[in-house]
Amino acid sequence: MRVKNTVRLLLLGGLMIMGSVAYQERDTPGQSDPAALTSLVPSPVEVSVLSARSS
At 49, is the pLDDT very low, low, confident or very high (cuts 50, 70, 90)? Predict the structure, then answer.
């Protein structure tokens, strides 16, 4: 039981360190990627109205 918890904590700590290293670039001001901002804008959606006929 103690070994499982130790392995889980080590894996969790490793993931946290990897995440902070991978996303460290986002914390630097003035070097943002313009494509990252435009990817958040939703694309237009086409809507078609269906009639309420029974088939």
Answer: confident
